[in-house]
TrEMBL record:
It is found in: Nucleus. Residues 39-50, 122-136 have a biased composition (Basic and acidic residues). Pfam families: HAT_PRP39_C (PF23241), PRP1_N (PF06424). This is PRP1 splicing factor N-terminal domain-containing protein. Associated with the spliceosome. InterPro entries: HAT, HAT_PRP39_C, PRP1_N, Syf1-like, TPR-like_helical_dom_sf, TPR_rpt.
C-alpha cells in the first residue's frame, strides 16, 4: 500500500503564494516598508556643492545650487494662500449675479454641445456594442442550441440523468470509509452489559417515591408538536428567528407577524417562546421603544393571549405617549369593543393632536355620516392643512351645494393643493369653474395640471378652438416661472387626456410642447417619429396622430413623414381621412412618385375609378415620362376592363418613355389577353432596342412555349443566355425546355454553363439537384447537394430542398437544427421547420414557426400558402379569417408556388384570396 498522503492533507510547498498562478498578486505599502531613509543634511549638501563648484572653477553657490539674491528681490508673498488673497485679487471670491449668469450660460452651452450628436453617438455605440457581442458571444448564447434541444428530452431521460458527485477528496473519503467499516473483537463484558440494558424491569423498586412516568402523555405531546410543525410547513410559514440570535429587529418582526396573522398559521411553541424572550429583552433595554412594544403585543396576539397583548400595549401607551404606531396598535386591538377603542383614540389624540393617522382611525370607528363629519371637523380644526381630512369631509357630504362650500373653504385654507382646486372646478358650473381655475393659476403658478384641466374644460364645453390658445398661454406662463415640464412628461399628459376621453386636449398639448427642448439642428424628425411609434405601441392613436401632424407641419417636404402619416391613417383611421392625407401629401411633395402611386391605388381600392384616373392624369402633368405612372394608369384601365385604353396608354408610354420594362409589360398584357402574335411582335421590337433584357427573352420563350413551339422557345432562351449570361432564370428555363424534349444531357450542360457564368448561385445549384431528383438519380442529387452547400452554406433554399427531399424523416429535425445555426433568418427555412412539426402533430410549435415565417417577411407568399393550408386542417374559422385578412393586407409577391400561380396568364387579374386558395392545391 502506498504511503503517499492525499494532496488535500499535504502541507503547502515552500515559497507558495496563494492565487499567484491565476494572476492574483499582492501589493506593498509604506507601512510594510517602514519610514524612508533620512537624506543628507543641509551642511552636507553645501559641502558637496562647494566641492563641485571648485572642480568646475566657479563660485560656490549659497545653498542647494541657488545663487544668493538681493534682499529687494525676495518675494515673500509667492507662497500666499490662494483662498486668502489680498491686494489686486482681494475680491476674487465674491460671487455675484454676473458670475452666476455666466456659469448658467456656460452650462447651457455645454448641455447644448453634449446634446447635438446624441442620436448619432447612441447609434454608433449601439452598433459597436452589437459588433462586440457578435464577436464575443456570451456563454449562454453559445449553448442556446443545446438549451433548445432540452425541450425534446422526455421525462424518462430526465430521470435517467446521473447525479453529479463531489470528486474533491474522493480518495480520502474512501480511505476513511474503509477505516470506519473495520471490525474488532468485542469483549464479553460489553456484550453482557448490552444484553442487560435491553431488558425491561417488571417490578417496582423499593426506593421509588410512588410516581410513575406517563408515557402516553409524552407521546401525545410529541404528536401535537409534530402536527404543529407539519401545519406550519404546509402553510409555508417558517420561523424568522434563529436559535443563536441575540437581538431582534422590532420593525422587521412586526412585518413577519403581519404575514403570519394573514395566513392564520400558528407559530411553533419554541419559536414563540424564543421570540418572546428576545422582544422582552429589547423592550427592557429601551423602555421607550414603541415598535418593540407593538411587536411584543403582536406576538402575544398570535400566541392567542389577547389580554396579555392589551396589557403590553397599554404599558406602551404609558411609556411612549408620543408614538403614533403604539396608539394605532392600541386602537386596533380594542376594535372589537368600539366604545373602548374610541376611548383609546381620544386619549391618543389628546396627546398627539397633529397625528393625522390617529384622526383617520378615530373617524373609521364612527358608523354614521353625521358622527364621522363631526370628528372630521374637529380634526380639521387641529390640522387645517391636511388634504386627506378635507377629502374625507367632502366625501361624507351629500348635498352638492354643501360640497361646493366645503371646497371653497378647503381651497382657501390649502391654496397649494392641485387636487382640491381641480376637484372644486369639476363640481362647479362651467362659468364658475373657469373662475376657479383662474384663481388656482394665481395660487399655484407652477402647476401644469391646472392648465391641462382648463383645456379639458373648454373641450367638454364645446369650445375646442380655444384649446390651442390655452396651451400656448400655458407654455409661456410655465416657462416664465421656470416650471416647464419635460417633453416626455407632456407626452404622458397627452396620453392620459386621450385615455380619459379628451383627444382635442391631447392634440393641443402635443402641438404646443412636442418641440420643447429640441433645437433646429437636432434630429427632430427622427425623434418625433420615434415618439409616435411609442404612442402607437400603447394604443394612443390620437397622440401619435398629433405628433405626426406636427412633424408634417415642420417638415412638409419629407416623404418619410408623409408615408408614416398615411400608414397611420390606413391602419387606424377612416377612408376619408386617408384620402385627405394623401391629397395633402401629393400637394406638398408633387415630385414624389411613391405618393402619387399610393394615392391612385387607394382611390382605386375605394371604388372611385373616375377619381383614380384624375389622380393619374394629375401625376402625368407632374412626372411626365415616368414609367411607373404610365404602368399605374395601365393597371387602372385593365382593372376597369378598358383594355383599349390600356393599350393606348402603353403605346404612349413606348413612344415617350420606351424602356424595356414598358415593352415587357406590353407583351405581358397581350399574352394575358390571348394575342400571342402581338406579344411576340412587342418582344422582338423591345429586343431590338434592349437586346440585353433577360425578361424580354424569357417572355418571348414562354410565348413560344404557350404556342407549343418548343424548338423556337429553346432558341429564344439560348439566345437570351448568350445576350445576358448573368441571368440565372434563362438557364433554368432553357433546361426545362430541354428536359421536356427529353434531352437530359443538354439540360445538365445548360445548368453547368449557367453555374460557370454565375458561380455560387443557389437557384442554379438547386435546379441541378432537382433535375437529378426528377430523374430518380438520388445519389447524384445528394452529391450535387453536398457541393452546393459547400458553395452556398447560408442558402435557405438549398437547406430546405435537402431537408424535405434528400433526408429521411427521422433525420429532418437534426438537419433543420444544423440549418438554423448557419442560416440566420430565412422564411423558407422557417416554413420547412413548421412542416416538420406539422408532420409530428406538434401543432403549437408548427403554429409558432409559421407565424415567425409570415412575420419575418410578409411578402413571402409560400409562407402564407402553407400556413393557410395548415389552418384548413387544424385551425378555427376565426383564425383562418384572421390569417386570410393579414395575407390580403401583406399582398405577397415572392415564393416559387406563389409566383407559379400569380404569373400564370390564366389567373391574371385574380385577387390575393383566390391566388392563395389555388396555390394551396399546388403545395405538396
Amino acid at each position: 500500500m502506498s504511503t503517499r498522503r492525499d494532496f488535500l492533507s499535504m502541507p503547502a510547498p515552500e515559497n507558495y503564494v496563494a492565487g499567484l498562478g491565476r494572476g492574483a498578486t499582492g501589493f506593498t505599502t509604506r507601512s510594510d516598508l517602514g519610514p524612508a531613509r533620512e537624506g543628507p543634511s543641509e551642511e552636507q549638501m553645501k559641502e558637496m556643492l562647494a566641492k563641485r563648484a571648485a572642480t568646475l572653477g566657479q563660485a560656490a553657490p549659497s545653498a542647494y545650487g541657488v545663487v544668493e539674491k538681493k534682499e529687494e528681490d525676495e518675494d515673500e508673498d509667492r507662497f500666499q494662500d490662494p483662498d486668502n488673497e489680498i491686494g489686486l485679487f482681494s475680491n476674487g471670491m465674491n460671487y455675484d449675479a454676473e458670475d452666476d449668469e455666466a456659469d448658467r450660460i456656460y452650462q447651457a452651452v455645454d448641455d447644448r454641445m453634449a446634446k447635438r450628436r446624441r442620436v448619432r453617438r447612441e447609434a454608433r455605440e449601439k452598433k459597436e456594442r452589437e459588433e462586440y457581442e457578435k464577436n464575443n458571444p456570451k456563454i449562454q448564447l453559445q449553448f442556446a442550441d443545446l438549451k433548445r434541444a432540452l425541450s425534446t428530452v422526455s421525462a424518462e431521460e430526465w430521470a435517467g440523468i446521473p447525479e453529479v458527485g463531489d470528486m474533491t477528496g474522493k480518495a480520502k473519503r474512501a480511505r476513511e470509509a474503509r477505516q470506519n467499516t473495520r471490525s474488532y473483537a468485542v469483549p464479553d463484558s460489553v456484550i453482557s452489559a448490552a444484553h442487560q440494558a435491553g431488558q425491561l424491569e417488571t417490578s417496582i423498586s423499593s426506593d421509588s417515591d410512588g410516581t410513575m412516568t406517563n408515557f402516553a402523555s409524552i407521546g401525545a405531546a410529541q404528536k401535537s408538536a409534530l402536527q404543529v410543525r407539519l401545519d406550519s410547513a404546509a402553510s409555508g410559514t417558517q420561523s424568522s428567528i434563529s436559535g443563536t440570535a441575540t437581538s431582534v429587529d422590532p420593525r422587521g418582526y412586526l412585518t413577519a407577524l403581519d404575514k403570519a396573522s394573514a395566513v392564520n398559521a400558528a407559530m411553533p411553541i419554541e419559536d414563540i417562546n424564543r421570540a418572546r424572550v428576545l422582544l422582552e429583552s429589547a423592550v427592557k433595554t429601551n423602555i421607550h421603544n414603541g415598535p418593540g412594544y407593538v411587536a411584543l403585543a403582536r406576538l402575544e396576539e398570535v400566541a392567542g393571549k389577547v389580554r396579555q397583548a392589551k396589557k403590553i400595549i397599554q404599558k406602551a401607551c404609558e411609556m411612549c405617549p408620543r408614538s403614533i404606531v403604539v396608539w394605532e396598535e392600541a386602537i386596533r386591538l380594542h376594535r372589537e369593543n368600539v366604545h373602548n377603542a374610541k376611548i383609546v383614540a381620544a386619549n391618543g389624540i389628546k396627546l398627539n393632536p397633529k397625528a393625522i393617522k390617529l384622526w383617520m382611525a378615530a373617524i373609521e370607528l364612527e358608523k354614521t355620516s353625521r358622527d364621522r363629519k363631526k370628528i372630521t371637523r374637529q380634526a380639521i380644526d387641529h390640522n387645517p392643512q391636511s388634504v386627506e381630512l378635507w377629502k374625507l369631509l367632502i366625501n361624507d357630504t351629500e348635498k352638492i351645494e354643501d360640497v361646493r362650500i366645503l371646497f371653497a373653504k378647503a381651497t382657501e385654507t390649502v391654496k397649494l393643493s392641485e387636487e382640491l382646486w381641480i376637484s372644486y372646478a369639476r363640481v362647479s358650473e362651467p362659468d364658475h369653474a373657469q373662475q376657479i381655475l383662474n384663481a388656482a393659476r394665481k395660487a399655484i403658478p407652477t402647476s401644469a395640471k391646472v392648465w391641462v384641466f382648463a383645456c379639458r374644460l373648454q373641450e367638454q364645453s364645446g369650445k375646442e378652438k380655444l384649446c390651442d390658445k390655452i396651451m400656448e398661454r400655458a407654455v409661456k406662463a410655465l416657462t416664465k416661472e421656470n416650471a416647464m415640464l419635460k417633453r416626455e412628461d407632456w407626452i404622458t399628459q397627452a396620453e392620459t387626456c386621450e385615455q380619459e376621453g379628451c383627444p382635442v386636449t391631447a392634440g393641443s398639448i402635443i402641438k404646443s410642447t412636442i418641440g420643447w427642448g429640441l433645437d433646429e439642428d437636432d434630429e427632430r424628425r427622427d425623434t418625433w417619429l420615434e415618439d409616435s411609434k411609442h404612442s402607437l405601441a400603447k394604443g394612443m392613436y390620437e397622440t401619435a396622430r398629433a405628433v405626426i401632424a406636427q412633424a408634417t407641419t415642420v417638415f412638409p417636404y419629407s416623404t418619410t413623414v408623409w408615408h408614416t402619416s398615411i400608414d397611420l391613417e390606413k391602419r387606424h383611421g377612416t377612408q376619408a381621412t386617408l384620402l385627405d392625407m394623401l391629397e395633402r401629401a401629393v400637394n406638398s411633395c408633387p415630385n414624389s412618385e411613391s405618393l402619387w402611386l399610393l394615392y391612385a391605388r387607394e382611390m382605386w381600392q375605394a371604388g372611385k375609378l373616375v377619381e383614380a384616373r384624375e389622380v393619374v392624369s394629375r401625376s402625368f402633368a407632374q412626372l411626365s415620362g415616368n414609367e411607373n405612372i404610365y404602368l399605374s394608369a395601365v393597371n387602372l384601365e385593365v382593372e376597369a376592363g378598358q383594355y383599349d385604353q390600356a393599350r393606348h396608354f402603353l403605346q404612349i408610354a413606348r413612344e415617350s418613355a420606351g424602356t424595356d420594362r414598358i415593352y415587357m409589360k406590353s407583351a405581358v398584357m397581350e399574352r394575358q389577353l390571348g394575342d400571342l402574335e402581338a406579344a411576340l411582335d412587342l418582344c422582338n421590337k423591345g429586343l431590338q432596342m434592349w437586346p440585353g433584357s433577360w425578361k424580354l427573352h424569357a417572355i418571348k420563350g414562354q410565348v413560344y412555349e404557350s404556342m407549343s413551339k418548343l424548338k423556337e422557345a429553346q432558341e429564344a432562351f439560348s439566345i437570351g443566355t448568350r445576350a445576358n449570361p448573368k441571368a440565372p432564370v434563362l438557364y433554368i428555363l432553357l433546361s426545362h425546355i430541354q428536359e421536356k424534349q427529353g434531352a437530359i444531357i443538354q439540360a445538365r450542360s445548360s445548368l453547368d454553363r449557367g453555374r460557370q457564368e454565375n458561380p455560387k448561385n443557389a437557384q442554379l445549384l438547386c435546379e441541378a439537384v432537382r433535375l437529378e431528383r426528377r430523374q430518380n438519380n438520388n445519389s447524384a442529387a445528394s452529391k450535387t447537394m453536398s457541393f452546393a452547400l459547400q458553395e452556398c452554406p447560408t442558402s435557405g433554399l438549398l437547406w430546405a430542398e435537402k431537408i424535405m427531399h434528400l433526408e429521411a424523416r427521422t433525420q429532418r429535425k437534426p438537419r433543420a437544427l444544423e440549418a438554423i445555426k448557419k442560416v440566420e433568418n430565412d422564411p423558407l427555412l422557417f416554413v420547412v421547420i413548421a412542416r416538420i412539426f406539422w408532420g409530428e402533430r406538434r401543432l403549437d410549435k408548427a403554429t409558432t414557426w409559421f407565424q415567425k415565417a409570415v412575420n419575418l417577411q410578409p411578402e413571402f407568399g409560400d409562407g402564407w400558402v402553407y400556413y393557410y393550408k395548415f389552418l384548413q386542417q387544424h385551425g378555427t374559422d376565426e383564425k383562418k379569417a384572421d390569417v386570410l385578412s393579414k395575407a390580403i393586407m401583406a399582398e405577397p409577391k415572392y415564393g416559387e408556388i406563389w409566383q407559379s400561380v400569380a404569373k400564370d396568364p390564366k389567373y391574371a387579374r385574380t385577387g390575393v384570396e383566390e391566388i392563395l386558395k389555388i396555390a394551396i392545391g399546388k403545395a405538396d
